[in-house]
UniProtKB/TrEMBL annotation, chain A:
Signal sequence, renumbered to the chain: none
InterPro entries per record: Trm112, Trm112-like
Protein name per Swiss-Prot or TrEMBL: Trm112p-like protein
GO molecular function, one term: protein heterodimerization activity
Gene Ontology BP terms: rRNA (guanine-N7)-methylation; tRNA methylation
PANTHER family referenced in this protein's UniProt entry, alphabetically: MULTIFUNCTIONAL METHYLTRANSFERASE SUBUNIT TRM112-LIKE PROTEIN, UPF0315 PROTEIN-RELATED
Organism of this sequence: Actinidia rufa
Assembly and oligomerization: Interacts with TRM9.
Transmembrane segments: none
A Pfam family the protein falls into: Trm112p
Family as reported in the entry's similarity comment: Belongs to the TRM112 family.
Automatic annotation (TrEMBL), chain B:
Protein name: Methyltransferase-like protein 5
Keyword Methyltransferase: yes
Keywords of the record: Methyltransferase, Transferase
Keyword Acetylation annotated: no
Molecular function in Gene Ontology: nucleic acid binding; rRNA (adenine-N6-)-methyltransferase activity
Domain Methyltransferase small residues, every copy: 29-131
Alphabetized SUPFAM superfamilies for the sequence: S-adenosyl-L-methionine-dependent methyltransferases
Signal peptide: none
PANTHER family: RRNA N6-ADENOSINE-METHYLTRANSFERASE METTL5
Top-level taxon of origin: Eukaryota
UniProt source species: Actinidia rufa
Amino acid sequence: MRLLTHNMLSSNIKGVNNGFPLLIEAEKVVEKLVDFNPDFLRNIFPKIDWKALVAAARAVGYGELPDAADPAMLDSDDFLRHLHHALLQLHLEEGALVCPETGRRFPVNKGIPNMLLHEDEV
Amino acid sequence: MKLKQLESLLGTLQQFSNPKAENSFGDVTDKVVADFGCGCGTLGLAAALLGAEHVIGLDIDAQSIEIASTNAEDLELDMDFVQCDLRNLGWRGPIVDTVVMNPPFGTRRKGADMDFLSVALKIASQAVYSLHKTTTRDHVKRTALRDYHAKSAEVLCELRYDVPQLYKFHKKKEVDIAVDLWRFVPRGV
């Protein structure tokens, strides 16, 4: 699972007010190289929850993203390369996503998070 | 992208989808695409072949996702998967541009396809492509525009769809039904 997907997923357990962002417990992280597409990155940048992305990147061992970002940074090739790597090339392969309010763990196996809720959580 | 190549790679796609239409609206290439109820991944992988930058397949069934994941590997395509129940999905933000789906119909629980459509129109910011039985065309249009606040709902083409005898309550061995390929534009965020 890419961190771009993580940037959209939220815990939806009954009674949880804010299930975003899910915390990451990383046991195994893999890198898969993909083509660099700066236009895509510029387009998606305003839609990203930056704090969640930075935290997720750090949780999988990538510390190259700045704490805060603004659109002016999109002129920097270095910044775009780091963003590209964090969003699209790092995959959480094994571990868990953890609900920020309840601590409920959603396991991630073979890169696939299991977000199914138990009956009493719906 | 080489539509011929797409056809040959995904033999069954031709009857489900219309890649030319998807291309002409600019809803797929370089976009973030979600495949709802992805099953073995056909539509999502088609989107990836058409140059979608990021594709997410969502399905409730682990076995389907496993097959889809293998298919993606075989085609050397990147596709993310999330195992979830779309009816209680937690989702943030406007990142997904386009949802493609072949939602369940002909199943015992009526209206499952409309549940999918309701969620799709909340999550997609640009377009939703979906298949629904032609006999439900008026209902689909009315519900999408009035209840799900779609900006537009348009049937792109009508297809024939072979439904094999999957469930015990299916009385006939196989039926050939008319299905509409829709393009919906969500209200936007």
